[in-house]
Amino acid sequence: MIKRKIQGVLADLATKFPVITITGPRQAGKTTLVQLQFPDYKYVNLEDPDVRLLAERDSKEFLEQYSAPVIIDEVQRVPKLLSYIQVIVDRDKKKKGQFILTGSQQPNLRAEVSQSLAGRTAILQLLPLSIQELTEAGIQMDRDEYLFKGFMPELYDSNIEPELLYRNYYMTYIERDARQLINLRNSLNFELFIKLLAGRVGQLVNLSSLSNDVGVSVSTLSEWLSVLEASHIVFRLPCYFQNFGKRLVKTPKLYFTEVGLATYLLGIKDVSQVARDPLLGGLFKNMVVVEALKARYNAGKEGELYFYRDSKGMEIDLLLNENRELLPMEIKAARSYNPDFTEAITKFRSLVPNAKPGAVIYSGDLTPTIKETRFVNFTDTADIITKQVLTSKN
Q1: 271-308 tens-digit pLDDT
Q2: How far is CA 90 from CA 38, 45, 72, 116, 122, in A?
């Protein structure tokens, strides 16, 4: 079993808050994580229809049968439980770590938690496995293998082909969640929409263009996109525009939470196809951006990740905003380093006084520093994000 980086943060927060809420995509490892961390807790899953019926009809009886300390999985299925949990934890505020809640539909859960458990719960977000976690478990792969296989824990717990896993994942979870959250009438249009999104990873979100391709209104696509975000399938990386005025593009970029799913949706059926695919650059950026996001979440922090693009086309692929200081990063799938990769970072730092020396994250092994910009292999992305210090290894 692969140890999760977030485990230490989870253990610490359970000594400080009566409730811990963990959100994230389905099958990202939330249940495994909490059962490993709290082996003596009772466990109940609200996906079970009989259990869910009891929780809905008689919440008090449910919470007596599954009294604290308890792990409640997929708590968003019965949101009214949160009000009853509030009463219980307020009864004895000195007890910590009484309830461990997990959920996979973020907006529903966040809204209910904010209303019922404000000040009583710590919220963590768990994404699929990171390159850092795989490396520490002794699993190292080539760039194209990471992009093809992806990072879902089941891929590494059992001998299952990526195509089979992602096909079942799409049919079992994505379509089901979509039908729960919206009145989905045409699953073929919805599937086309998701595949078109996969073809646009790392690009600005343009629903008007997608509307023409799918044959569905912009308002409907906007609703579908919100559902995919709610289910942690995709996320929008915002443009950093604070203090830059009107000269910036403010449209977000779109990425998949699991790059392996995007690769599957593009019809890539073998690892040898990855390097030849015209979307290699976008998929590689997707992987690196999500690796950065995992590093932030695994440290118990908010994302605070952005990109930068002005009206003249000058762009930085990734910015970390930490303590009002900006760390610029360029992301290149290339295996060979090129000094020209540093030009955008150098220009950005001339415009932004509080920008730190940046990094070019690429697929090569050389780590030169050019104009204070360090070249770093993509497998070290988490170290860049957590340490934020780009010093030579010499």
Answers
A1: 999 999 999 999 999 999 999 999 999 999 999 999 99
A2: 22, 24, 18, 11, 15
Q: How far is CA 389 from CA 53, 340, 380, in A?
A: 52, 22, 12
Do the bridges between strand 234-237 and strand 121-125 make them parallel or antiparallel, or are there none, so unpaired?
A: unpaired
Query: Residue 228 — φ and ψ, nearest 5°?
Result: -65, -35
Where exactly are the structural domains of the chain?
A: 7-125
Query: How much is the pTM?
Result: 0.93
- Which residues, 6 or more positions from 91, have their beta carbon under 8 angstroms from its beta carbon? none
Burial class (CB in 10 A: 0-12, 13-18, 19+), 342: buried
Task: Find tokens 């992987």 and name the residue.
Answer: 287
How far apart, in Å, are the Cα atoms of 21 and each of 67, 102, 114, 309? Answer: 17, 6, 11, 35
The vertex-254 CA angle with 6 and 206, nearest 5°, equals 160
Residue 258 CB contacts under 8 Å (≥ 6 apart), including other chains: 25, 128, 150, 151, 152, 233, 290
376 phi and psi, to 5 degrees? -135, 135
Question: Hey, which residues does 328 pair with through a beta bridge?
Answer: 319
- Tell me the pLDDT tens digit for each residue of 333-384: 999 999 999 999 999 999 888 899 999 999 999 989 998 999 999 999 999 9
In terms of CATH architecture, what is 7-125? 3-Layer(aba) Sandwich (3.40)
Is 115 within 8 Å of 81 (Cβ atoms)? no
